[in-house]
Specification:
8 strands; 358 residues; 9% strand; single chain
Length: 358
């Protein structure tokens, strides 16, 4: 290499280094304007400098991993998810939107119960972790299917990208298994079914409130089972018509709203209905949000308690799980009753024979 070539190479290297420094300064300015922290560059360490780096005063790798697990546990916290989900206002649910309240809550967003001035149907959501806001529009009725699908795709990406760069929700979301039908034993499921129905009846009797007229999709065979349970459970007469209505409500996952306010609520989809405010028949199924585990098999992630080949391959909704539990218990009760009658008949026959011999 000639001397002139060396001088040229040195000049080119200086130019590249200068451009790199200018680019570095530009990046720092941009990050500063959008409130991002500076990029830290770790110092290179020679082998000798590594001595003593594992001082006991420094956090160990295990501790750092535990800290990361704490963050992950907050991401998948059911309590935090339900707190965010319960924040969504009636205004959010009244209109069709490109994303559901559950979808937003799983990505760390909660409803501020605020709207924009120009678009009162547009809801403002916020993230408690990074403080960012996103705006969820209402889908117009005249919008084509193609436009709706395109908007939904953009919002699905926006649920991630709406967070700040260093926010934990930018790359993560709550696991789908966190929001599901709370699997219980058959026994506890039956106790809940009877207990919730009894609480609704007691509140209505106390406040002299009639049970509402219902819309439901139960077939005649299921209705017979519900009425049978109502007769077996309600041993004492109550001054209330259509007592089985309370058991139908309980079958679909509805609990008593309040001891002093006859009505129903679902803590899974955060829906509440007071009976005195109902001006039309109450739909026991569609009264839930569309994503509620009691009516949505995908989010419920439940399987029938009946034992057959499809029991662990086909998902069912929470209300279908309750129907299957009811059917199993009904068969047991009927068989027990029939056996009891057979025993009584046999005993009566034995007594008659003894009397004849005497």
């Amino acid at each position: 290499m000639t001397e002139s070539d060396s001088i040229q190479l040195s000049t080119d290297t200086d130019d590249v280094r200068k451009e790199a420094e200018e680019l570095k300064d530009l990046i720092q300015q941009v990050r500063s304007r959008i409130d991002l922290p500076p990029i830290f560059k770790a110092k290179k360490r020679c082998f000798e400098q590594l001595d003593g780096i594992y001082d006991s005063s420094l956090p160990s790798k295990k501790i750092l991993l535990e800290d990361n697990n704490v963050e992950l546990s907050k991401i998948d916290s059911r309590e935090d998810l339900m707190t965010r989900l319960s924040s969504y206002s009636t205004n959010f649910h009244l209109t069709q939107r490109p994303v559901t309240a559950l979808g937003c809550a799983k990505h760390g967003w909660k409803d501020t119960d605020k709207t924009t001035e120009k678009e009162p149907d547009t809801c403002v959501l916020c993230c408690d972790t990074c403080g960012n806001n996103i705006f969820v529009i209402a889908i117009k009725h005249k919008a084509s299917e193609k436009v709706i699908n395109e908007v939904k795709k953009r919002y699905e990406a926006g649920l991630y990208n709406g967070h700040k760069e260093l926010c934990q929700w930018r790359t993560q979301k709550c696991d789908d298994g966190v929001y599901c039908f709370p699997l219980v034993t058959i026994e506890s499921g039956l106790e809940k079914f009877k207990g919730d129905a009894n609480n609704i009846i007691s509140a209505c009797v106390k406040k002299q409130q009639a049970l509402p007229t219902l819309c439901h999709e139960l077939d005649d065979r299921t209705l017979i089972k519900v009425k049978y349970f109502a007769e077996q459970t309600q041993k004492e007469h109550v001054e209330l018509d259509n007592v089985e209505t309370a058991y139908i409500l309980s079958l679909f996952g509805w609990e008593l709203l309040h001891a002093d306010i006859p009505g129903v609520k679902c803590d899974l989809c955060c829906t509440r209905k007071a009976f005195y405010l109902l001006n039309e028949p109450f739909d026991a199924s569609r009264g839930h949000k569309s994503y509620c585990p009691y009516v949505n098999a995908e989010t419920a992630n439940a399987y029938t308690p009946k034992g057959f080949s499809l029991s662990r391959t086909q998902k069912i909704s929470g209300s279908d799980w309750m129907k299957d539990v009811l059917s199993l218990e009904y068969v047991i009760l009927i068989k027990s009753r029939d056996l009891s009658l057979s025993y009584d008949d046999a005993l009566d026959e034995k007594i008659r024979k003894l009397q004849n011999n005497i």
